[in-house]
């Protein structure tokens, strides 16, 4: 009996689900080898990144210690990966003290994830890209409400009570909806008119939710309007300076805060570790997540460009794709180790969940050629369930 060392880079959604799936598929199933699993991440916790907006409105803890997710059977190394020597099957990394190390692997899974796309520093505002940024956003709008109470200038009061969210993907939608609910509630506590709180959602597209049919996008927009969010289509935020936000359509908004939610890009670390990448920075893999020219190396999640060989459709960058990729990866690795045929890629079902503030959500799926939409509390329960499943809490 000899040992198979499997190293997973990244404790995000794809990484922790890969750990679970590989252990489930391989432990006790390999004919002649035992499995050793090592997880590398720069933090000692799993960050529930899709819930950053929760920190922008309150004090909710959105981290889970990795040793709590995997109390046994998984080794954890807190470090930053600096290089992958594919020919030697070594991963090089630096610990928090700056000491360099090298680790041998038989199987390496790259699940480094993504980072939030940054606006140019000259554009002003704040990107919702980290826990610190989220807390800063919360502090600013709360301070603005206190200023609104104190000022006698009606225009300044309105500016302090106005927030723009630039970027209308799912993150932007969920952020704006949550802010509309919480900021209005806080304004009322301070004696301000909650109806005066204005949340603008800036959408570069001609409608919301381009992933689904127009009628669902319209329903989503109406729901947001009911919760206090005004959607502005066909325009981008260009620059926010001293409370004046310039839009791409030539208009300006007077705002107390501009929040950028501009989507995701592959983790920049990938450009320095020696793996083949697309022009955009995604790891190049085959239909079974194997990295080109790097035996024993696989990549899944936000950091990989995964294309269905039958349909030509590129996998999305949401938790549902990452979870499904991780589940299949466990079976692929077992098949590769044992010399069997890897399971084929299964097309994803159209399915999206969107949170619309506390206790409210919307779910859309297409089944049997029909659009199925669930809203309200049921939509919220399903959305919360997907968040929890992605973080191994269910």
UniProtKB/TrEMBL annotation:
GO MF term list: NAD(P)H dehydrogenase (quinone) activity
Keywords recorded for this protein, A-Z: FAD, Flavoprotein, Oxidoreductase
Cofactor entry: FAD
Cross-referenced Pfam families: Pyr_redox_2
UniProt keyword annotation of Oxidoreductase present: yes
Domain FAD/NAD(P)-binding: 6-307
GO process terms (BP): aerobic electron transport chain
Sequence similarity: Belongs to the NADH dehydrogenase family.
Gene3D superfamilies in alphabetical order: 3.50.50.100
The keyword Oxidoreductase is annotated on this UniProt entry: yes
Protein name as it appears in the record: Pyridine nucleotide-disulfide oxidoreductase
């Amino acid at each position: 009996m000899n040992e198979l060392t499997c190293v997973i880079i990244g404790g995000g959604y794809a990484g922790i689900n890969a750990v679970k799936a590989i252990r489930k598929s391989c432990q006790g199933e390999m004919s002649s080898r035992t499995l050793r699993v090592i997880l590398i991440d720069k933090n000692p916790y799993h960050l529930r990144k899709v819930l950053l907006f929760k920190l922008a409105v309150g004090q909710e803890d959105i981290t889970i210690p990795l040793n709590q997710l995997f109390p046994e059977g998984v080794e954890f190394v807190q470090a930053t990966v600096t290089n992958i020597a594919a020919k030697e099957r070594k991963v090089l990394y630096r610990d928090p003290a700056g000491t360099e190390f090298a680790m041998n692997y038989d199987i390496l899974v790259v699940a480094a994830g993504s980072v939030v796309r940054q606006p140019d520093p000259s554009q002003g505002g704040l990107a919702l890209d980290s826990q610190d940024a989220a807390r800063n956003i919360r502090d600013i709008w709360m301070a603005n409400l206190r200023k609104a109470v104190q000022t006698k200038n009606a225009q300044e009061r309105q500016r302090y009570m106005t927030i723009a969210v630039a970027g209308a993907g799912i993150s932007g939608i969920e952020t704006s909806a949550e802010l509309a609910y919480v900021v209005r509630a806080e304004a009322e506590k301070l004696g301000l008119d909650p109806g005066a709180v204005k949340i603008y959602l800036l959408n570069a597209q001609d409608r919301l939710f381009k992933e689904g049919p127009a009628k669902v996008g319209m329903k989503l927009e109406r729901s947001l309007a009911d919760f206090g969010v005004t959607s502005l289509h066909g325009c981008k935020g260009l620059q926010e300076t001293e409370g004046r936000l310039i839009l791409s359509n030539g208009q300006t908004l007077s705002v107390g805060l501009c929040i950028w939610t501009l989507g995701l890009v592959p983790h920049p670390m990938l450009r320095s570790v020696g793996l083949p990448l697309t022009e955009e920075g995604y790891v190049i893999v085959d239909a079974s997540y194997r990295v080109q020219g790097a035996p024993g190396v696989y990549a899944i999640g936000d950091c990989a460009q995964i294309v269905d060989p039958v349909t030509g459709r590129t996998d999305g960058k949401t938790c549902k794709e990452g979870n499904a990729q991780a589940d299949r990866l466990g079976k692929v690795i077992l098949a590769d180790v044992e010399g069997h045929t890897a399971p084929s890629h299964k097309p994803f079902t159209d399915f999206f969940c969107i949170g619309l503030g506390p206790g409210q959500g919307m779910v859309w799926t297409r089944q049997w050629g029909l659009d199925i939409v669930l809203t309200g509390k049921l939509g919220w329960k399903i959305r919360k369930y997907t968040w929890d499943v992605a973080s191994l809490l269910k």
